[in-house]
Design brief:
By secondary structure, this protein is an all-alpha fold. About 75% of the residues lie in helices and about 0% in strands. It is elongated. The chain starts with a helix and ends with a helix.
Length: about 130
């Protein structure tokens, strides 16, 4: 107790924590892409439900809005898995050899995750108006 009274910062200094953080293994390219895919799927699912539910609220009794919700399982998840598998087979280099490809793929992934729910709902509304 007397030692901590002399040096109050001793309680705050957790060197084991900082040593473990400093020696932690950095994320590999495949782990980073896997994280992006997981968050993009969450974003896509939220948008799909929000946009799909607004399409379902209409007066129509069409099954097309329900098809838009099923598209998540039928199309998006397997496509994301194939996308992730591509990055699993790439070498995990610490250098920046894959930085440009990674940036391109993450931009493509996020654009698709955000745009696809609106495209599906818009297509459903157009098909409903035609038929």
């Amino acid at each position: 107790m007397a030692e901590t009274a002399k040096n109050p910062s001793k309680n705050l200094d957790n060197t084991a924590y900082y040593d473990a953080a400093a020696t932690a293994k950095p994320l590999t390219w495949s782990q980073k892409m896997s994280n992006h895919i997981a968050y993009a799927l969450l974003t896509y699912t939220g948008l799909q439900i929000f946009v799909g539910m607004s399409a379902i609220k209409g007066d129509s009794r069409s099954i097309l809005p329900y098809f838009a919700l099923v598209a998540l399982v039928a199309l998006v998840i397997p496509a994301c898995r194939n996308f992730e598998r591509r990055w699993e087979h790439m070498a995990d280099n610490d250098d920046m050899t894959y930085a440009r490809l990674f940036r391109r793929d993450t931009i493509l992934l996020w654009c698709a995750a955000i745009a696809f729910p609106f495209i599906v709902a818009g297509t459903a509304k157009i098909l409903h108006a035609i038929f």
